[in-house]
Each structure stands twice: as structure tokens, then as C-alpha cells.
Amino acid sequence: MSTYLPAAVGMPLAEVDTPALVLDLGAFERNLQRLKDSLAGRSVRVRPHAKSHKCPQIALRQIALGAVGVCCQKVSEAEAMVAGGVPDVLIANEVVGAVKLRRLAALSKQARVAVCADNAGNVAALDAAARDFDVRLDVLVEINVGANRCGVEPGEDAVALAQRVGACANLRFAGLQAYHGSAQHIRSVAERRAAVESALAKVKRTTALLGQAGIACERVTGAGTGTYLFEAASTVYHEIQPGSYIFMDADYAKNDWTESGIPRFEHSLFVWTTVMSRPSAERAIVDAGLKASSVDSGMPRVADDSVVEYVKASDEHGVLKLNGAAGYAVGDKLKLIPGHCDPTVNLYDHYVCIRNGRVEALWPITARGAVW
Question: Rounded to an integer, what distance in angstroms lies between the CA atom of residue 137 and that of residue 167?
Fold first, then answer.
């Protein structure tokens, strides 16, 4: 992690160096509360996904509002969360390879840790690692509910793998991972809801077959920011895993939320950038390019100007098409809404936390680069 800090506590936002990752604490805290309020009266547990923020300070704030723990995607993320005081982590992904499995087993001595599996050979490897470290690992069978990524097929294949897990002396079958990632950014509410209904049918069939086989399924976990209220209302899911709700990004903003019941979360995460060149009346160049904001889900959006467009990114440059807008002189600073919050966060060492126009804190992004 770099020793350079882009800001100091008490500094006005205008003086914060760029590019910087800025977190509006007011909007962030309102997003935390909105999720909690939207689930009032429901028995579903919240396990937010830490891949979005990679920051134990944020995870602990989520837990303080009722979350049971967090999800991670990698062992290294889980290690960062546990080191930061998070007591309960689900690695909502497969962990493969001897080195990673040893680290996973060692971590389970420090906190409550669970992991997913979709392959019998991997189950055997998990069992061996757990045996070597004298631990008993919780393993969830991941089923493919429509994303066509990881996951054993629902139904008989999932039951067979659950039986494999249950037969291992050092593993415990802890339920099903049933996350429909590709449903999260379906724009239409009706189509998003239909995707979740299809996933629910697969989960129901699998849990029914597990019951017929005498296997208790104590946990069905999944769901994300775009659909979590549908899964929460189903009574099929025991646990939900929204992540991006704390930040929101330009891509999520393209979803239709009307009549979904899901609240409109606010944009709280921004890339703070400086106009570094003004080569023409219609073009300004900012110092936030590909190394400052991920564009895999589209270009960033200028936060406070609906006229100006961010149209092109190269390594260290972002091109703004001004469309007749005034201002944007060399040295001016502005906020960009990232196209995709998760990979954008992974580009920075710190959140510059702002309240009422001043820096209140710098939170280290402890799991930045934790991809192993």
C-alpha cells in the first residue's frame, strides 16, 4: 500500500488531491439505514458482500446495523476482514489450490468461516486441508440458478455433492449458495423479478430433494442489490448478500426501480478529478482515466452536470464532451460517478470520507488487490 495520502482530516474537499476516491458519509449512512428499513418485519439475515468495499471499517458498520457477517470472494479478502475484526465470513466462491486451502483452514481457527464448493474433487481437497489443521469447515454447495458461472446443476447433482460433503469427517454441509449475479443489472423490474422466480424454482426443487434424502438445509444464501427484496420476500432464502447498495454506481442507476419495493439508494462513491487540459471549446480532459475508474460497465458519469459526458478513457486521461456547458477550466475539480463501483474501489488505497464538504476520515481499503 502506498504511503501517499491524498487528503488530511479537516481539509476542504476542494483541496483534496486527485484522482481520489471520495465517500460521501451522509449518503453512505442513509444507504445503510435504507437497507435495514426495507427489511423491517422480515426474518431474512443480511450478509453484505465485502468485495464491493474491501474495507473492515465499512463491514463493521454494516454489522453494527444488524448484518450477521460479510461475504468475500477470495481467501485474501476474508483474511483482511478477519484481521480487521469481522467475526463471521462466507467465502461465496470456490477456493482451489493447496496454498489457498491451507490459508482457508488456518483462518477458520480465528473466526467463523464458510466456503462454497461445486466439485467433488475440491470437496476432497477441502476435507484434507481441514484435517491437516484440525478444524471442521462449513461448506455450502453452490448451485447454478441462472448465471451460468460457477455452481453445480440444481436438483440431483446438488444433492449428490451435499452427500459428499456430509460424508467427510472434517466438513459440514452448511446449505446452498444460490446467487443469480446476472439478474442484478436486468433493467426491467418485471424481467428481473422473473429471473429471480426462475432461480427460486431451482432452489425449491433442490431443497425438496435434500429433504427427501434426509439432509437438512439450514441456509440458502444469495441475492444482490438489484433483487434482494425479491429473495427476502420469498421465504426460501435465509440470507441475502447485497453489496453495491452502499455506494451505487452509474450502471445500477440505469435499472428501473419503480414498483420493485427496493429503495432508491443514493450515489455515495465518487472519483474526485481535476481538469488538466482544455484543448477546445467542446472538450476538456481530466486526470482520471482507466487507472482511476473502471469502465467495464460503461463510462463514469459527471455527478453534478447532466449535460457534460465522459466519452473516452485512456490510461491517465478522461475526455469530457462539454455539449456547450460553461466552466471546466484547467484546475477545476469535479466528481465522477463510477460505471462499476467494485473494480473502481480496487484501484485505490483509501476512501477520502467527506461530511459537509470537509474530510472527516481516511479509511484504508485493506483488501485492495486481494485477488488470490
Answer: 13
Domains and CATH numbers, the chain: 13-20+265-364 (2.40.37.20), 39-246 (3.20.20.10)
| Measured distance CA(242)–CA(239) in Å, rounded | 10
Please state, in angstroms and rounded to a whole number, the distance separating the CA atoms of residues 352 and 364.
9
Q: Tens digits of per-residue pLDDT, 44-84?
A: 999 999 999 999 999 999 999 999 999 999 999 999 999 99
Helix (H, G, I), strand (E, B) or coil at 175: strand
pLDDT at 97 over 80: yes
Can you tell me the distance from the alpha carbon of 242 to that of 151, in angstroms, rounded to the nearest whole number?
19
End-to-end Cα separation, the chain, in angstroms? 16
Query: Which of 218, 51, 23, 84 has its CA nearest to residue 138?
Result: 218
Beta strands in the chain (DSSP E): 20-24, 45-46, 70-72, 88-94, 112-117, 137-142, 171-177, 220-222, 239-240, 269-280, 283-286, 301-302, 309-313, 318-321, 333-337, 350-355, 358-364
> Phi, psi at residue 332, to the nearest 5°?
-65, 145
Indicate the SS3 state at residue 278.
strand
Measured between alpha carbons, how far is 372 from 73 in angstroms, rounded to an integer?
Answer: 9
Q: Name 134's Cβ contacts closer than 8 Å, sequence gap at least 6.
A: none
CB atoms within 10 A of CB 106: 16
Choose among 38, 98, 363, 57: nearest CA to 223.
38
Name residue 194's amino acid: A
Report the alpha-carbon distance of residue 86 to residue 65 in Å, rounded: 14
* DSSP strand pairing (20-24 vs 45-46): unpaired
**pTM summary value:** 0.96
Mean pLDDT to the nearest integer, 78-101:
98
- Quickly tell me which residue has 452502499 as its cell: 246
**In the chain, alpha helices (H):** 25-38, 56-64, 75-83, 98-107, 120-132, 156-166, 189-212, 228-234, 341-345
CA atoms within 13 A on the CB side of 360: 10
Count of positions (residues) in the chain: 372
